[in-house]
Every structure is written in C-alpha cells, then in structure tokens.
Design goal:
6-stranded mixed β-sheet; 316 residues; 7-stranded mixed β-sheet; alpha/beta; 35% helix; 2 domains; binds zinc ion; Metallo-beta-lactamase, Chain A
Length: 316
C-alpha cells in the first residue's frame, strides 16, 4: 500500500524516535521511554486491519509518513482513559474508537472525564484548560464501549481485552496473540508505584489486578510509561514486586504520620503520602485525599487503625 509498512516508516522516517518491532507490532517510545506526560505508542499491522493502542503525546512528533499511517488506522483500542492516553484521538476522524465501558463516558465528554477524576469543582475548572492545552484534549463522542474479553482480529494478529481495573474502573490489559505481548498500560511498573488517586480508581481492585497480571503467559510486556518494553520474565517479576511494594510503603507512611500526631485526612494530605513536598499540580491534593482515604479504609479493615469519629484516625 502507498502508505508503506509501519515498521519501515518508523525505521526510515523517524530516526529521532526509538522503536521496537515484534512481528506485526511496532512500539514507538515516547520521551524517556514514555515518562509522563509522554507515553509509548503501540501500532499493529494485520493482514486485514491496522490498529493503535492508546494515543499518547508522542503522536505529535510523527513525521508526515508515520503521521499519515497513524491517521488512517482502522481502529484505536484504549486500555483506559486519562488525559495522556487520548492525545491523538482528534486526528482519527474515521477510525473506530474502542474503550472499556467502565471508562467510556470519560472518553465521550468532559462531564464524564470530570467524574472519572472526581476532584473538587474548582480544581476541575482549572484542569480542563490545562489538558486542552497540554494534551490537545477533546471529547470523543463516537467512542464505543467494549467489555472484558472483547477481541479484534486484524488478520494474523488478534487483540483481546483483559479487564484489570484499579488504576481506573475500566483499565484493561490488551493481549496480543500469537506473539504473547501484553500491553500493560498504566500498570506501568514505574518507581512511583501504582496510581489509584482518582474517583474511579480502586486500591482493592489494583491489588487483585497486580496478582492476576503476573499470571498472564506473556513473553513481552509493554508499559505506557517509563519502563517501555520488557522481554524476560525475571525482569518483569522483579519490576512487578517492586511496584507492589510501593503500596505497602504508603501504608507504612500513613501509620508513621498517624503516630507522629497527625490524625485527620486533611493533615495527612498536607504532609503528603504519594508525592514529594515540592510537587505541585492543581489536582495533587485530590489525588492524595483519595489515596489516603483508601489506605485508611484498608488499615481499619486490617485492625491497625481505628476511626474515633468521622474526621479523626488513630493507630490501635
Ligand atoms: Zn492513566
């Protein structure tokens, strides 16, 4: 076809962009292996159809050749919805856009995305123009919902959605056969650890997901951010174990702050559990609040913390 093979375009037209190729799958790495706010782009070329997984900011850097290829994909399958995963959607005028039903409204409208984040109204009012500027954000009203187990046969390469919530309500791993590649999305195995700071995020679900993701019989794992591509199970399992340990470190931090005399959620939010003291973003307190609340709930269930009244918490 006149557009050329994506592998050739990525190699010849984008010398500045790092890429990896696994048969019909091309991974184009964003800045610093897709460190937020960038991300890694997966492109698939089957006999019958071409697809993109998510559409991060790296798509802004595509040359004319690769940009034309991207803009004519038949479908974009989103592993989940956040501002940094839907950047290229406005360029896909004729593609089918598929999103797990748990994240669907977040793709379709600002109201849906605002409820997905769940931050305070004044924070959301500041956030909207920021993500329109930084992530080219637009609602995608024609996005269609899919369910756990949904599959797409591209011709010689098949994609299946495996619902793995926690980061968001609809977060899925996208599983590619026959090559055994798992696109992990924001189960991103970064040093930061799992993010479950939004309204539809769930620490309980993320813990279950982290146990299940280990069982996938993959030989290649691709994350949206920073880690990029992992091609051996030993490295994957070590990264996964370190990622999981961040959750327990946060629980320890909450206990330590409670013991130090901070007993309200707002005091814990100001002391920071998730982010360093110098970090600054309009949504940051909201993410801390949601995260800390879930850790307190878990610590109460474990019998380590008691709630004296609606506002105050103590170590038992
Ligand atoms: Zn995300």
């Amino acid at each position: 076809m006149a557009l050329g093979r994506v592998q050739d375009l990525a190699a010849a037209n984008e010398p500045a962009l790092a890429s990896a190729h696994f048969g019909p799958v091309t991974v184009i790495l964003g800045d610093r292996s897709g460190k937020y706010p960038d991300g890694n782009q997966i492109l698939l070329e089957g006999r019958d159809a071409r697809a993109a997984f998510d559409t991060p900011r790296i798509t802004r850097q595509f040359s004319a050749g690769l940009g034309a290829w991207f803009e004519t994909v038949d479908l974009a399958i989103l592993g989940h919805v956040h501002e940094d995963h839907v950047v290229g959607l406005p360029r896909l005028k004729n593609a089918g856009i598929f999103v797990h039903e748990g994240d669907l409204e977040a793709a379709r409208s600002w109201k849906g995305l605002a409820e997905h984040y769940g931050y305070e109204p004044d924070v959301l009012a500041q956030l909207q123009p920021q993500i329109e500027r930084d992530f080219d954000w637009q609602p995608c009203a024609h996005a269609q919902g899919y369910q756990d187990g949904a599959s797409w046969d591209l011709g010689g390469v098949k994609v299946q959605a495996v619902h793995m919530p926690g980061h968001t309500r609809g977060h899925c791993v996208l599983w590619v056969e026959p090559i055994g590649l798992a696109f992990l999305g924001d189960i991103d195995l970064t040093g930061f650890g799992p993010y479950y700071g939004d309204a539809t995020s769930s620490l309980i679900d993320f813990r279950k997901t982290l146990a299940r993701v280990r069982e996938l019989p993959a030989s290649i794992w691709v994350t949206s951010h920073h880690r990029g591509v992992i091609q051996d199970r030993v490295t994957f399992e070590a990264a996964l174990a370190a990622f999981i340990s961040k959750i327990d470190q946060r629980s320890e931090r909450v206990l330590e702050l409670l013991r130090s005399g901070l007993h309200t959620i707002e005091a814990l939010v100001q002391a920071r559990v998730l982010y360093p003291p110098h970090a600054n973003a309009v949504w940051l307190d909201g993410a801390e609040r949601r995260t800390i609340t879930q850790h307190l709930d878990e610590l109460i269930l474990q019998g380590l913390v008691e709630r004296r009244d609606e506002q105050t918490f103590f170590v038992k």
